[in-house]
Write a structure and sequence with these properties.
Shape: elongated
Protein name: Pilus assembly protein Flp/PilA
Organism: Bradyrhizobium elkanii
Distance between the termini: 56 Å
Number of strands: 0
Order of helices and strands: HHH
Keywords: Membrane, Transmembrane, Transmembrane helix
Transmembrane segments: 21-42
Mean pLDDT: 77
Structural class: mainly alpha
């Protein structure tokens, strides 16, 4: 058990000093914010949601007909 604790502690230390790791976390945060905004827009505006749903349905029916 101690071995896993030491490995985890060392990995967290490397992550703190790794500048590339910070950048990837920033990308994840930005992506989550973008997803939240898109979901908020599609939930409140039903015309956009309906148009998107109809478009996806048409595309999938076209591919299934091939």
């Amino acid at each position: 058990m101690l071995k896993y604790y030491i490995k985890t502690t060392e990995a967290l230390k490397r992550l703190r000093t790794d500048k590339d790791g910070v950048v990837s976390f920033e990308y994840i945060i930005v992506a989550a914010c973008i997803v939240a905004v898109v979901l908020a827009v599609f939930k409140t505006d039903t015309s956009i949601s309906t148009a998107l749903s109809n478009g996806i349905t048409k595309i999938s029916s076209t591919f299934s007909g091939l």
